[in-house]
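We emphasize that the prediction below concerns an isolated chain of 329 residues; any contacts that depend on oligomerization or on bound cofactors are therefore not represented. The input was used exactly as deposited, without trimming of termini.
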Amino acid sequence: MRFLALGILAALAGTAHADDRNYAPVIAEIRPAPTRVATANAALATDPAELDSFCRRIDAKLSSVHHAECLSIGLLDSGADSNNRTPLLYKDFLPAEGKPIARVLLVGGIHGDEYSSVSIVFKWLAMLDEDLGERFHWRVVPVLNPDGLLRPPRMSQRVNANGVDLNRNFPTPNWEVEAPAYWEKRTWKNKRRYPGPSALSEPESAWLAEQIQAFEPHAVVSVHAPHGVVDFDGPRVPPRQLGPLELRLLGTYPGSMGRYIGIHKGIPLLTLELESAFGMPAQDEVYAIWYDMLGWLHEKIALPLKLAEEKRAPVNELMRAGKDADTEG
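Result of the prediction step, given as a token string:
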């Protein structure tokens, strides 16, 4: 029997909640998922046969990601499985030299029918493999919902194998009242937006929630489609534009990652809504989104962290930086 993990790593938004920013922190129970269990940061040796099978299924589903390209990334087995026992794979990237300036969690494929949200993350994985991550510590999960994505041709679905929308399954305050009520009264029990029987009822969402706790990212980037905008939740100033995607604040839902990560946890959450769920952005747009995002991460995440660290440093260490060093935030 294989063991499940509470191990590694999105968020489609909606109407804003009037009390979103007044939530008091709560500690939510994280129930173990029904397959494998491992420690939060455990990475297992990836079974070559399982990785080959995963990459062949990705190749068959996504025309823009080839089998060899998927294999070359060197994805790691997190120790966690989806409901259908597909390993949840990830990859860490550290700077070639020096200490990381911040930790960033990047997640694709939260909804299985948003193909481009997976394809573009694979392109960025290849760029990170060439050390284009700008001194950040990246943790990347290309497919959070493999069961929704890797169904037979033309049968991918938004929800996971249990029919749960992972982006409504996170433990936002008062989830047990608000999430079912919203699903019943506002979506008329739309099956594509079913929040599940309880918060973190799904192995995929439980794994991601535990990873947020263990990895402690300074920012999270979630990729979706097809609204063609940048959404943002949490502290810091959002970017006005990333590549062709302009800022439009969409709000949050009960159980969504926007409400859970950005508002409840207070971690800046960038949600990239690509323009098409099926077609990849042009190559120049793939690069433009990436480098604009790196610029924002430097200015709004890494720089404030650096200034805060300098203010906590002993006076003699600050003086070594030079008499003209800017230590004001």
